Amino acid sequence: MTAQLNPRGDVAVLVPAAGAGVRLGPGGPKALRLLAGEPLLVHAVRRIAAAPSVRLIVVAAPAADVEAVRELLAPVAPVTVVPGGAERQASVAAALAAVAPGPEIVLVHDAARALIPPELVESVAEAVRSGHHAVIPVLPVVDTVKEVDAGERVLGTVDRSALRAVQTPQGFRRSVLAAAHETAGDPLTDDAGLVEKQGVPVVCVPGSELALKITRPFDLALAEHLLAAGA
Ligand code: CTP
Ligand code: MG
Predict the structure, then answer these.
(1) Is the CB of 18 within 6 Å of ligand 1?
(2) Cα 213 to ligand 1 centroid, rounded to whole Å
(3) Is ligand 1 within 6 A of the CB of residue 19?
(4) Shortest CA distance to 109 belongs to which of 228, 40, 13, 11?
(5) Using the 8-state DSSP alphabet, how is residue 112 labeled?
(6) Ligand 1 atom closest to Cα of 17?
(7) Domain residue ranges of the chain, discontinuous segments joined by +
(8) Which CATH code, of 3.40.50.720, 2.130.10.10, 3.90.1150.200, 3.90.550.10, is assigned to 11-136+167-228?
(9) Does any ligand 1 atom lie closer than 6 A to the CB of residue 111?
């Protein structure tokens, strides 16, 4: 059944989905790989659409697959699909340029984080609504972390209590994200990094283990198990 988005919602969600999925091994673009019989992107969009504040969704798809992605998502939720770019940052910029006027909160969520709980979409959006300009979901780092040199020799042990592993959705006041992308330099792997460079304070909210990024085959297998267990 096609989800209805909230016409009075104040949130637009950009979904970069144009990556190749090299680390997942041979196969098509990662967002179109199957998880429990459905593409990762379908899982992600369905969960985003279930968040009550979401008014619109823009997907940046692999350029060669834009039409196929439109057809794939038509029964899932009303979404705008645009061609992505060569780097994640370019894909986000393309999606941002396609956001219609209205929503003042913009979230960016990786299609690769297919099991995103709708509650995390809401908690990031709520933190922006409450006045923060940039919000990221994080988890504590559980492993001991070492710094090494080019020869894999240990230089030292990093104090992990001050480290956080960063997830998506990352949330922004729309004007803040737009300004960061206008002046963007070298591509970064997340959007908060761009905003940090502008000197905008970025705040953390608790992330979710279900928002894991499906990167390697192990992650896909883990996600299959999580879904089978009711995630
Ligand atoms: N992404 C994108 N456009 C790109 C590169 C990445 O929209 N040019 C998206 C991916 O589709 C993914 C998210 O950014 O949803 C995070 O990227 P990553 O996990 O690195 O995915 P891939 O780039 O597809 O994987 P890999 O790096 O293994 O090729
Ligand atoms: Mg990548």
Answers:
(1) yes
(2) 10
(3) yes
(4) 13
(5) T
(6) 11
(7) 11-136+167-228
(8) 3.90.550.10
(9) yes
pLDDT tens, 66-87? 999 999 999 999 999 999 999 9
Please say whether the dihedral angle defined by the alpha carbons of residues 64, 59, 16 and 89, taken in this order, is positive or negative. positive
Query: What is the rounded distance in angstroms from the CA atom of residue 84 to the CA atom of residue 150?
Result: 33
Atom of ligand 1 nearest to the CA of 86: 8
Q: Pairing mode, if any, of strands 134-140 and 170-173?
A: antiparallel
Is residue 22 lining ligand 1, measured as CB closer than 6 Å?
yes
- The CA distances from residue 136 to 102, 111, 153, 166, in Å, are 22, 16, 32, 7
3-state class (DSSP) for residue 8: coil
Tens-place pLDDT, residues 81-117: 999 999 999 999 999 999 999 999 999 999 999 999 9
Beta strands in the chain (DSSP E): 11-16, 34-35, 38-39, 54-61, 80-83, 105-108, 134-140, 145-148, 154-158, 164-166, 170-173, 203-206
- pTM of the model as a whole: 0.97
Ligand 2 centroid from CA 43, angstroms: 19
Pick the residue whose CA is nearest to atom 6 on ligand 1. 19
Beta-sheet strands, E only, within 127-173: 134-140, 145-148, 154-158, 164-166, 170-173
Q: Which residues pair with 11 in a beta bridge?
A: 54, 105
